[in-house]
Design a protein that fits this description.
With 287 residues, the protein is of the alpha/beta class. It has a single domain, classed as 5-stranded Propeller (L-arginine/glycine Amidinotransferase, Chain A). The strands form 5 sheets. The chain has a 3-stranded mixed sheet with strand order 2-1-15. The relative contact order is 0.17.
């Protein structure tokens, strides 16, 4: 298998106007990624490419566009339509009729994918709708199973990549036990995951809430929003005492090089390294 190609949004003027910190962060992210991978920079209206670029089939590499319609941050109806049009221009591929952001999809061992459930994805009051969504999403991802985890009440973003990711057979979880409700929710989610993988190793990554955030959108202090590729693990840092602890934890579950990137300013817009990148495998001949 050839190494992945990583896609990023170009820091053009209209993008930087929305996200000023991206202008300074982009060269550092680009340099870190190009040390290990081919990187393609796209002319896009938005920087969170994980959410709206096509998903890739785990076995064939085929691309499918999901229906992108977020209802948070700066995503007006006009802006969202502009993003969808640009993606259609760049990726004339199969359309998968599932309304879900790419940030709400995490791949686990054995091509099992995890997502937070949500009423915009499927409605329990509509018999058969969940089954139809699962079938369509599984066809796009090449998934053997779609597992829905309970969402947090009041969560404006509903992106699972801010809660959990896998490295090999280890599940890395953002430790958000700030209230009894969140602690109960965390264990409900982990119970659902462990029913699928009863021997799963779980490591908790500290999560530091952004006390300056009034919107509920900031990803500052969310370490689980890292990017693992075939060649390295790119890990966010926040100028916090927990930065070194995160690196030490990840070193225990992988032998890949770990690349630390200061995401302090960019994360306050709502995401970190995983959200800003989209990786595509370029060959499946050796798999």
């Amino acid at each position: 298998m050839k190494a992945e190609t990583i896609l990023l949004a170009k820091p053009q003027e209209k993008v930087v106007k929305i996200y000023p910190a991206y202008k300074a962060f982009f060269p550092r992210l680009y340099a870190a990624l190009t040390a290990y991978h081919e990187v393609e920079v796209l002319d896009l209206p938005d920087i969170w490419v994980r959410d709206f670029l096509p998903v890739q089939h785990a076995a064939t590499g085929a691309l499918s566009r999901l229906f992108f319609r977020p209802k948070y941050a700066n995503y007006t109806q006009k802006f969202t339509a502009q993003i969808r049009r640009r993606v259609c221009e760049l990726f004339p591929v199969r359309f998968a009729n599932v309304e879900i952001d790419g940030g709400n999809i995490v791949r686990g061992p054995g091509d099992i994918f995890f997502c937070f459930e949500g009423r915009r994805i499927f409605r329990r009051s509509f018999p058969g709708e969940q089954e139809m969504v699962e079938k369509e999403l599984a066809a796009a991802l090449g998934s053997k199973q779609i597992v829905w985890l309970p969402r947090e009440v009041g969560d404006k973003v509903n992106h699972i990549d801010g809660f959990m990711q896998f490295i090999g057979d280890t599940l890395l979880v953002s430790d958000e036990r700030f209230t009894p409700y969140l602690e109960q929710l965390l264990y409900q989610r982990l119970e659902a995951v462990c029913r699928i993988f009863p021997n799963l190793q779980i490591r908790f990554l500290p999560c530091v809430p952004d006390k300056a955030d009034k919107s509920g959108l900031s990803a500052y202090g969310v370490y689980v929003n890292f990017l693992e590729t075939s060649r390295a693990v790119f890990v966010p840092q926040y100028r916090l005492a927990q930065d070194k602890e995160i690196i030490d934890i990840i070193k225990t579950v992988t032998e890949k090089p770990i690349v630390a990137l200061d995401c302090t300013d960019i994360a306050r817009y709502g995401g970190a390294i995983h959200c800003l990148t989209k990786e595509y495998k370029t060959s499946y001949d050796a798999e």
